[in-house]
Amino acid sequence: MLAALLLAALLAWTASAAGADLSEYGNPYLWVSVGQVKIKAEAVRTPAKLYLGLSHRPNLPAGRGMLFFMPELQVQHFCMRGMNFPLDFIWIAHGRVAGLTRNVPADFPGNLTSPEPVNYILEVPAGFIDRYRLRVGDRVSWR
Fold it and tell me: What is the number of domains present in the chain?
């Protein structure tokens, strides 16, 4: 575990020196807009990063999130394995919010399923959806 954290820190430092904006976990940041709200989100695409997600982290700072780039547009299944804090899930397809799952506790025992086929999922701190009054159908984009 320590070796993995050191490798992630080294990768982040190397990319930072090269001008890339990476998290301390080695994931590139994107600015995600949902409706009128902007979130600084880590982007994950590889099978290992998609599996790990935000697991085993101590927290998720306000205004931050993780954007999952799923390999196919399909009904997605997520879980709270190894989570230490609650989350909101924003299910995304075709540049719009397809569904919202609020206030999932860190110890939620089951699976979370998207309401329809999606290929992006944005995880944000619990309460974010209600705080910013996000709605199904809101536009979503990133850069």
Answer: 1
